[in-house]
Amino acid sequence: MRIIGGRLKGRQLLTVPGLAVRPTIARLKESYFNIVGEEIAGARFLDLCAGAGSMGIEALSRGAAEAIFVEKSRPALAVLRRNLAKCGLTSGYRIVAGDLFRELPRLAAHHENVDLIYFDPPYFENLYESTLELVARQRLLAQGGLLAADHFKKTPLPSRVGELVRVRQVRHGDAVLSFYAWTAPMPSVSGRPGD
After folding, report:
1. What are phi and psi of 143, to 5 degrees?
2. Is residue 1 part of a domain?
3. Which residue among 18, 117, 135, 140 is least packed, with the fewest CB closer than 10 Å?
4. Residue 85: enclosing H or E segment and its boundaries?
């Protein structure tokens, strides 16, 4: 597994041993970053179920302002930290060690809207709809942002979850990327229109 674009292009990354964490295939990663294109520059990137961190590190390589890695597996967190060190990254990221259903409301409570979310859970843990519902309810995605869910082709995802609407799907082999956009106007921090 390696970085495929940006200032860290070509850097080899470590993978998490075993089958519990599945690395994102190179073609899927390339498709994702081709789709988000220039939106990555200066973006706040949330890597959910980050594993070894390849997507968030790729985002930083391509100019993201910040990457937030959310991961609960201790072995994966150890590999993630080693990969950040291997790439010489000492700032511009945060590691949130814990369960996403506990950590995402904490991020939302601090008004931490993000521009791009990449969600790649273990395929067979049935986390998709509950996580999409949580992201929608907590309003984690900034206006104009995109959430991409990496899922098995035989795992259908809903076309809409709250104000998140699926706008695109891309398939490579058995893997599918479903893209969701936020459709409702974002409220002001004070809750009063026009503030």
Report:
1. -55, 130
2. no
3. 18
4. helix 74-86
